[in-house]
Automatic annotation (TrEMBL):
Record EC number: 3.1.1.31
UniProt KW keywords: Hydrolase
Name of this protein: 6-phosphogluconolactonase
First-level EC class: hydrolase
Source organism (scientific name): Falsirhodobacter algicola
Function as written in the Swiss-Prot or TrEMBL entry: Hydrolysis of 6-phosphogluconolactone to 6-phosphogluconate.
Catalytically driven reaction(s): 6-phospho-D-glucono-1,5-lactone + H2O = 6-phospho-D-gluconate + H(+)
C-alpha cells in the first residue's frame, strides 16, 4: 500500500478530489467513458463537494456506491442520499447514476435486478473506499453473516450483508469487483483509523476486511 499523509483534512480533500478527477479524465480521453465507485458514511462528503464542480465530461461517467444501508432513501443514514446531495449535483449531475438500493422489499429481493444494472459498467475505473475503525470497508464487516462469501474470488457482484456493528441490513459490492478496479484509493481521517489500518496489515481479511484491498491501494490520511 502507498500511504499519503496530508498536513490537514482540507488539503487532503482537495488533493484527493483533484487526483480522482485527473484519473477520470485520463480514462475519458483513452476510452471515452469511465466508472467511479464511491463510499458513503461521514468522511467523503467534502471530497464529493469539490469533485461535483470539476469540469469533466461527466455525461460519460457512471457513478455508483460501494455499498448501501437498507434504509429509505430520505433517511439520514442513506448513502444514496449523501451521493445525490453532495456528488451528483452541479457539473457532476450529468453523470449516469446506477442504484444499488431500492425503497421496496429486502436486499435479497432486489439483489438480482440491481446486479444486472451494474454489470455493464464494470470494471470500475476509479474506486474510492472508506473504512470504519472496526476495519470494515464497503459493507464487508468483521463477523458479518456472509463475509466469507463476500471475500471469495467467486463471489457474485453484490451481496446482502448483516453484521452486529452495521446497524441495519446492508447491500455491498463484494471483494471481487472491488479488487478488479483499475485504480483504488482509500480515504481515512483521524488517529483511530490510522491505527486501525496499521492493525489491519497484520490481520487476515476475515478479521479485518480492508486487508483484502491494501496491496494495490493508495491511502490518503490526515489527522
Ligand atoms: O457504513 C459505512 O461505513 C464506511 C466508513 O464510514 P465513515 O462514516 O467512518 O466514513 C463507509 O465507507 C461505507 O460506505 C458506509 O456504508
Amino acid at each position: 500500500m502507498n500511504f499519503n499523509e496530508y498536513p490537514d483534512r482540507e488539503f487532503l480533500y482537495l488533493q484527493l478530489a483533484n487526483r480522482i478527477a485527473s484519473e477520470l479524465g485520463d480514462f475519458l480521453r483513452r476510452e471515452g467513458r469511465a466508472t467511479l465507485c464511491v463510499p458513503g458514511g461521514t468522511t467523503p462528503g467534502p471530497v464529493f463537494d469539490t469533485l461535483s464542480g470539476v469540469d469533466l465530461d461527466w455525461a460519460n461517467v457512471t457513478v455508483f456506491l460501494n455499498d448501501e444501508r437498507w434504509v429509505p432513501e430520505d433517511h439520514a443514514r442513506s448513502n444514496t442520499r449523501l451521493l445525490k446531495r453532495r456528488l451528483l449535483t452541479g457539473r457532476a449531475a450529468a453523470a449516469t447514476y446506477i442504484p444499488i438500493h431500492s425503497d421496496n422489499g429486502t436486499p435479497e429481493e432486489a439483489l438480482e435486478h440491481l446486479a444486472e444494472g451494474l454489470e455493464p459498467h464494470l470494471p470500475i475505473s476509479v474506486l474510492l473506499l472508506g473504512m470504519g475503525v472496526d476495519m470494515h470497508t464497503a459493507s464487508l464487516f468483521p463477523g458479518a453473516d456472509r463475509l466469507e462469501e463476500g471475500l471469495s474470488d467467486k463471489a457474485p457482484l453484490l451481496l446482502p450483508m448483516r453484521a452486529e456493528g452495521a446497524g441495519e441490513p446492508r447491500i455491498t459490492l463484494t471483494a471481487r469487483p472491488l479488487k478488479q478496479a483499475i485504480s483504488t484509493h482509500l480515504l481515512i481521517t483521524g488517529p483511530d483509523k490510522r491505527e486501525a489500518l496499521h492493525r489491519a496489515e497484520k490481520l487476515t481479511p476475515m478479521e479485518a476486511p480492508i486487508r483484502a484491498f491494501l496491496a494495490d491501494t493508495t491511502v490518503h490520511w490526515a489527522e
